[in-house]
Amino acid sequence: MKKLLLFLMVISSTACFTQKRNPANKAIFLEDISWATARQFLTPEAVIVMPLGAGSKEHGPHLPLSTDYIQANGLAAEIALQRKIIITPTINYGFYPAFLKYPGSTSTNFKTASDMVVQVVRSLADYGPKRFYIINIGISTTPTLEAAAKILSEEGILLFYSDYHRPGFDKTEATFRTKAYGGHADEIETSNIISLRPDLVDMNKAVNDSSMKDKKGNMTPVAVEGGNLNTSGINGYAALGTREKGRKSLAAFSKELMREIDSIATCSLPVATDRTAEYTAFEGSYSDAAGEKILINQKNNTLYFIRNGEDNRHFFHLYKDAPDYFSSMVMNILFVKNATGAVEKAWCQYRGESFWVTKEK
């Protein structure tokens, strides 16, 4: 309790210096402060909120490509007024493969989207925080966040995220829909952007399009074999969007977000998986004929490496991303085992340079 009170005092004392964007904010925006100030409140008691919304993804002919990004920032701004949390810069790229036939839409692959979240969270967790919440604007991003949360939970880090399929969020959307059907660039999203950035909305181009109803798969603006033709890029009743509806839906969505954020602030953290015995198999010296030498050892349930005598154990430790596969900021290593399960060699990639090394006896 004393540590929590200290954290809240630090937040209060720094707020007046950092909240030039809105003096009424209770939250701290990480991008607005220096590292010296960040050091004061990136503590184990801190709750970190990370907005996630595509910066460039189609949302019909009437809404900007940054629709998800705008909504993520808008919701973060709402929460900042009411919760003493730390808000990170918005992640504006992710897994959005269904929209790539519409010019301007962007997507990473699944693993990159998941890894990006994992690596950003790990960076911040090293300073102390272990509780993270993602304002997730999207559907296809949810499985990537589920995968990221699983990896991080094994390291004792809690990652939770908003999911439109949860009853609380589903009910919130249904409350403000005039029509039951929708899902993309529709009545709700159109209303949200009218509320947040009316200057970027052209309602003269907003149409009602339910051509995707009961269909699955990728949408296309022109006929493509295996795709679903949707000339508007809209999935729902966009023409029904209004500013008032957007204001109310954003407020209700924010309330549900805060309920979940409050829950992770007090719940138990996951227990880190003890991998000490497992990691013993990887320890040892590895080398090749060209003189490359890698030393692998472990400390505090974490693998480290020393390459050619350069000791970076306190900077770049190795994280387990898959069975026998580890990564750090500069080094990726895939350990190769023989039929008996003993490690024989390892494939290494160091700053883009790849090589094989054999484990010494």
Explain this structure to me?
- The protein has 361 residues and is of the alpha/beta class.
- The protein has 2 domains: 2-266, 3-Layer(aba) Sandwich (Rossmann fold), CATH 3.40.50; 276-359, Lipocalin, CATH 2.40.128.
- It is built from 9 helices and 18 strands.
- It has helices at 2-18, 35-41, 67-80, 110-125, 141-153, 167-176, 187-196, 243-266, 276-280; strands at 28-29, 47-52, 86-87, 131-136, 158-161, 208-209, 219-220, 228-229, 236-237, 284-287, 293-299, 302-307, 310-311, 319-322, 325-327, 331-337, 343-350, 353-359.
- A 9-stranded antiparallel sheet has the order 13-12-11-10-18-17-16-15-14. It has a 5-stranded parallel sheet with strand order 1-3-2-4-5. A two-stranded antiparallel ribbon has the order 6-9.
- The radius of gyration is 23 Å and the shape is globular.
- It starts with a helix and ends with a strand.
- Mean pLDDT value: 92
Largest sheet: 9 strands, antiparallel
- Helical content (DSSP H or I, runs of 4+): 25-40%
H/E series, N to C?
HEHEHEHEHEHHEEEEHHEEEEEEEEE
CATH class of the largest domain: Alpha Beta
Report the sheet-strand fraction: 15-25%
Spans where pLDDT lies below 50 across 5 or more residues? none
Annotated CATH homologous superfamily of the largest domain: Creatininase
* CATH fold-level name of the largest domain: Rossmann fold
Q: What's the multimeric state?
A: single chain
Number of strands: 18
